[in-house]
Amino acid sequence: MSSNKGNFAVLLAALALAVSVYGVFTDNEVIVTQTGETISSNNDEYNRQWVENNSNDSLSAEILELRRYILDLEERLNNQQFNDVEAPQGMPVQADFQDAVLEVIALKEEQDRQKLKEKNPMYGFYEDLPEDYEIRIKTDPDYARQVGKDLKAQIVDENLSATERLAAMSQLQMTMFMLNKTEMPEYDYEAVDAILSIGRNSSDDKVKIQALEVVAHTPVADARVSDSFMSLLEKEDNDYIRSMAAEGLVAQYYKSQSKQPELSKKVAQDILSLYDNASDAKLKQLFDNIIGDARMLDELRNAAGQ
To answer: Do 211 and 263 have their domain in common?
Structure first.
């Protein structure tokens, strides 16, 4: 009798685990009451028919086998066959069964992570960060410095794909913001130019846009950066790329005001040169939208010495 109770407890535990895990993959819920009575949202015949009808679906063999195992457990409970509980062929029992279930969950989570990376590869790095990433970079200066060095090395490594380098730059920026900093030694002109070069040398507008979105508001104020934005404004046909370049150019003006007045003057002159001599009405409208009003335009003219 005690053996039957022990087997019964094992069976209930296995069924409860199986049902809770299976809920990850389907909305057909199965509930086990304290008395051992099984209540299913669909009858057994329907469930077994589901298994047969879906045996050729794209669902993994592990999930199908798990469902079969649940059905078998239900049948054993309903028939009170507790003397000799055996799992279907190919399925582990007790601890081994739990390991198999956890393996299925891990596989599903990994598939979800891969889908996220494929959808937005430039920010896929976030899924791979250690759980304590933020607290470590805030409390361990050596760790933060090493992260910065590693990311800088990836950004300038032309052997890596554009996506990998853009992701490294995105992570470096995120790390800088987490540290509440406006600059980092690794976030320098070389890093910014490496990303701008990806945009300049790519024939794919998607890559160009991603590169510009990463560095348009870079904290690095440098004449070479503003020249790159000028070049994009003069040569690019894509309106969005030009709008990002225009934002980048205006951002260079503001960032250089306090520490690099000569650069600020040069950028103001460049902006006004494009604005006053624009043969393209769209370009003029673009700057109107960014500059905003006559007051800002007057400020630019004063800064440019006009």
So the answer is: no
Tell me, yes or no, whether 111 and 151 share the same domain.
no
Confidence check: pLDDT of 33 > 50: no
* Domain end among 118, 149, 165: 118
pLDDT of residue 40: 45
Coil, strand, or helix at residue 39?
strand
List, for residues 259-270, the tens digit of each pLDDT value. Answer: 999 999 999 999
Residue 194: pLDDT above 90? yes
| CA angle in degrees (0–180, nearest 5) for 247-253-258 | 140
With 0-12 / 13-18 / 19 or more C-beta atoms within 10 angstroms meaning exposed / middle / buried, residue 241 is buried
Task: Give the Cα-Cα-Cα angle 17, 18, 21 (nearest 5 degrees).
Answer: 85
C-beta pairs of 17-21 under 8 Å, 24+ apart in sequence: 17/97, 17/98, 17/101, 18/66, 18/69, 18/70, 18/73, 18/97, 18/101, 19/70, 21/66, 21/101, 21/104, 21/105
- Same structural domain, 20 and 80: yes
User: Lowest-confidence range among 85-89, 107-111, 164-168, 183-187?
Assistant: 85-89
Whether residue 156 sits in one domain with residue 55:
no
Report pTM. Answer: 0.62
Q: State whether 9 and 114 are in the same domain.
A: yes
* Domain extent for 67: 2-118
Contact 123, 170 (CB under 8 A): yes
My answer on whether 23 and 78 are in the same domain is yes
The residue ranking higher by pLDDT, 20 or 34, is 20
Are residues 73 and 127 both part of a single domain?
no
